Structures are given as C-alpha cells and as structure tokens.
User: Fold this.
Amino acid sequence: MSTANYSTENTQDPELPLYCANHPNEETYVRCSRCEKPICARCRVRTPVGFRCFDCAQLQVLPTYAVGADYYVKAALFGFAAAGAAGVLMGLFPAFEFWAALIMGIAVPEAVAFAANQKRGPGLQTVAVAAVVFGFVLSRVVLIAFPLLIPLGGINFPSRIPPEVDIDLLTALPGHITQYTILWLALAAFLAYRRLQ
Assistant:
C-alpha cells in the first residue's frame, strides 16, 4: 500500500484526529517527529527524540544479535560436539550425572558462543538447548550400551532411589530416566538458554 496518500486534513487543529499513513482506517493524533507523517500505535517506534515511523527510525539489528547462516552451522557443530563429549562422559560415569550435566550446561553454550563469535539471540539459544537434549539422549544410549556400568550410578537409578522420594511414573521410563535425570536436563538447558540470552 502506498503511504503517499495519507490524509493531511485538519493539520492545523490538534484536537481533530488524523488517519495513519499505513492504516487509513486508524485514527491517530501522533506524527512522525522527522517526516511529520501520521502514525498509529502499530506504526510508531519510540526514540529519544519522540515517536518515528519505521522508515525514519531506521531500525537495525544489534551486531551481537545479527547471526548469519554460517555462524549457525559452526555453532551447531561446536555445540553438538561439546554436548556429545559431555553426554558420553555422563553415560560412562552415571554416578556423576549431576556434574556431567553441569559441565554440559556450561560447555555447550560457551562452545556455541565461541563458534558464533560471541553472538547471542533466540536462534543460538535454540541450537544450544537442542545440543543439550542431544547430549542427554546420547548419555542414555551409552548407558544402555554399557549396562555393566549401571551399578556406578549411585542414587541416579530407580533401584537405588529411596522409596520415600520414588516417583513410580519416572522410574518406569526406559533408558534409566529418573526425576534426577529430568532435573539435571532442565538445569543444563536453563544454563545454556541464559548464557546466550
């Protein structure tokens, strides 16, 4: 839609409404502080010098959040590699599941940030959280592949959980998933999410 046909009637009387340049049916009392174009609530951007239209505000993405496709590829490679290493560690040493999850929650977002030149944003958060989930899935695969290591699990496994804190639904899940596993996964994912926010 052309924005050149907006109404300029009543320009001398501030009491009468104008009509938005982009939405002709929307009444407004606000003009762009630069080009004087009438703008409604959906079309205005608050700036230090007043409201401006999108064109005059010249919105730009901060360099920290400007992430190209090549950065996503590198971030995914580094993040999944770090999560894979931590996941194997978690699977081979199940008694240290908490510490492996903590390592994963720190190492994965750091690897993603390093690969993306210290950039951040929702896309990189998604990559990091996906890598953390991959690391936990890999740890379960390693546990299943090496069942003789399960006795090293301490309180992380259903057979060792005290009855008073046992959750029947979780102890019945495959892959030695317990309430602790879910808690550590949430912790690692939260750390990864916050680091790249």
User: Anything to note?
Assistant: The radius of gyration is 27 Å. The helical segments are 54-57, 69-92, 97-115, 122-145, 168-171, 179-195.
